[in-house]
Amino acid sequence: MASEKTPDAWVALPDEASRPSSEAIAAALRVRGIAAEVSESAAKYGRQIRYAERRGIPFVWFPMGRENGHEVKDIRQGEQVPADLATWQPPTVDLRPQVIARTGEDDQ
């Protein structure tokens, strides 16, 4: 039985008009191996943060517009910092577990 994977990052949705931008952010994170989901609705940020927190998602990504950059909040510590989409990486311990296939004598 497969279980639902918890994303590494939750991309907030400021308003419905911003959905394409939020989806593009999530796609860019996924390409880099960071599991990301976009909020289903453009609720107030506090509500979106609480939803991510209940699901155990450690980081919330806030799209702030091209000129203002982006910000990421570690909701466990409450710290919100500027982030570059091309380089931001959650700490290794926060990335979802990877399955590594092993071959050899130890697998007998």
The side-by-side strand order for the widest beta sheet comes to 2-1-3-4-5
Strand content: 15-25%
CATH level-four homologous superfamily name = Anticodon-binding domain
Largest β sheet strand count, sense and barrel closure: 5 strands, mixed
What is the CATH top level name? Alpha Beta
- What's the number of structural domains? 1
- The gyration radius over C-alpha positions equals 16 Å
State the CATH architecture.
3-Layer(aba) Sandwich
Q: Give the proportion of residues in helices.
A: 10-25%
Contiguous uncertain segments of 5+ residues: none
Q: What is the averaged pLDDT score?
A: 83
CATH topology: Rossmann fold
The end-to-end distance, rounded to whole angstroms, is 24 Å
Entry summary:
The protein has 108 residues and is of the alpha/beta class.
Chart the SSEs and their pairings.
Layout: E1 9-11, H1 19-31, E2 36-38, H2 45-55, E3 59-63, E4 70-74, E5 79-83
Parallel strand pairs: 1-2, 1-3
Antiparallel strand pairs: 3-4, 4-5
Describe this structure in words.
The mean pLDDT is 83. The protein has two helices and five strands. With 108 residues, it is of the alpha/beta class. Strands 2-1-3-4-5 form a five-stranded mixed beta sheet, covered by helices on one side. The chain starts with 8 loop residues before the first strand and ends in a 25-residue tail after the last strand. α1 links the parallel β1 (9-11) and β2. The chain has helices at 19-31, 45-55; strands spanning 9-11, 36-38, 59-63, 70-74, 79-83. The chain has one domain: Anticodon-binding domain (Rossmann fold), CATH 3.40.50.
